[in-house]
């Protein structure tokens, strides 16, 4: 377990105010423990960043929280409810949304369609109240109630336009263009828009500014700051430490699967173990920046 910097509480059980609570989360790949006994609490409205050298286990941790991978040990709770082995779809239904390090959009779908996918978990008119009845009834309802479905879809399209407006003129003018025709940065924005369309309670952002230039990075930082100001709870993986320092309520440092430090940004930045972990992996901030610029 990592040291707590400027924070003496490290409770063994989930605090009642936690939206997300991880206890002893562990994932092994053969002889490698990619995530090693991680405890983490995220209070509602908090923005916590996870930093650490390449291969530290950050993305694997995200995969465990979002159901893309199954832990070998430990527990995940969302708002006090155990959700450890839930599927990604079920977790999305519970309000967990994420973006991916390398960006994942459907190239042949338009910007609008890509973002609508995020809203799908919230469709009411075509969704039966009991999940047991499943997709067949969903289809039946869609056929029987086209007016309600159309009305709901139009409402969602309006919502999507509102979400896209958050990105200024980056996406709105391209709303009907296929995602494959977009720039890399715009594809990443579409992915974030899709995550927002889910109206998440918890948003996990995996290197949202990877491959972005300084102007684009500043814009993305502004958007994340806005989301935080609106009360969204955010878990952020980011290599750009300046951004991490500006945005985070708390920073967690991972190295070789373990949490090696946790606390306020500046304290963590100056922590001897953290400096050693970065230098030990040959990854100074300058090297990280160079990597991002080159991406
Ligand atoms: N599916 C897998 N099978 C085997 N090993 C894996 C798998 N996924 C991740 N790993 C290994 O687990 C370790 C942690 O990887 P992970 O991608 O979580 O690190 P990271 O901190 O996100 O790194 P980066 O900053 O480079 O994205 C690495 O050594 C990686 O090679």
Automatic annotation (TrEMBL):
The keyword Transmembrane helix does not apply. PROSITE patterns: ABC_TRANSPORTER_2. Pfam families: ABC_tran, BCA_ABC_TP_C. Residues 20-281 form the ABC transporter domain. CDD domains: ABC_Mj1267_LivG_branched (cd03219). Keywords: ATP-binding, Nucleotide-binding, Transport. InterPro entries: AAA+_ATPase (IPR003593), ABC_AA/LPS_Transport (IPR051120), ABC_transporter-like_ATP-bd (IPR003439), BCA_ABC_TP_C (IPR032823), P-loop_NTPase (IPR027417). The keyword Isomerase does not apply. One of its GO terms (molecular function) is ATP binding. It comes from the Bacteria. Involved in beta-(1-->2)glucan export. Transmembrane domains (TMD) form a pore in the inner membrane and the ATP-binding domain (NBD) is responsible for energy generation. This is Branched-chain amino acid transport system ATP-binding protein.
């Amino acid at each position: 377990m990592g040291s707590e910097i400027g924070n003496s509480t490290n409770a063994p059980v989930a605090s009642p105010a936690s939206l997300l609570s991880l206890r002893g989360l562990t994932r092994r790949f053969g002889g490698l423990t990619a995530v090693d006994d991680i405890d983490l609490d995220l209070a509602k409205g908090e923005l916590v960043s996870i930093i650490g050298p390449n291969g530290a286990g950050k993305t694997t941790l995200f995969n465990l929280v979002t159901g893309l991978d199954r832990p070998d040990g430990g527990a995940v709770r969302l708002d006090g409810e155990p959700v450890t082995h839930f599927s990604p779809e079920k977790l999305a239904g519970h309000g967990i949304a994420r973006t991916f390090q390398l960006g994942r959009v459907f190239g042949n779908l338009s910007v609008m369609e890509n973002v609508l996918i995020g809203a799908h978990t919230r469709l009411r008119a075509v969704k039966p109240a009991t999940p047991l009845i499943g997709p067949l009834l969903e289809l039946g309802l869609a056929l029987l109630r086209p007016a309600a479905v159309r009305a709901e879809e139009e409402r969602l399209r309006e919502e999507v336009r509102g979400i896209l407006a958050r990105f200024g003129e980056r996406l709105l003018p391209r709303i009907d263009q296929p995602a494959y025709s977009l720039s890399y940065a715009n594809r990443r924005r579409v992915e974030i828009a899709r995550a927002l369309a889910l109206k998440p309670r918890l948003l996990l952002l995996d290197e949202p500014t990877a491959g972005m230039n300084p102007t684009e990075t500043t814009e993305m930082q502004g958007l994340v700051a806005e989301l935080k100001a609106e009360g969204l709870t955010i878990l952020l993986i980011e290599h750009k430490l300046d951004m991490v320092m500006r945005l985070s309520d708390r920073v967690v440092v991972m190295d070789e699967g373990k949490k090696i430090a946790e606390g306020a940004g500046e304290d963590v930045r100056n922590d001897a173990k953290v400096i050693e972990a970065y230098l030990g992996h040959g990854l100074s901030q300058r090297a990280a920046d160079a990597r991002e610029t080159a991406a």
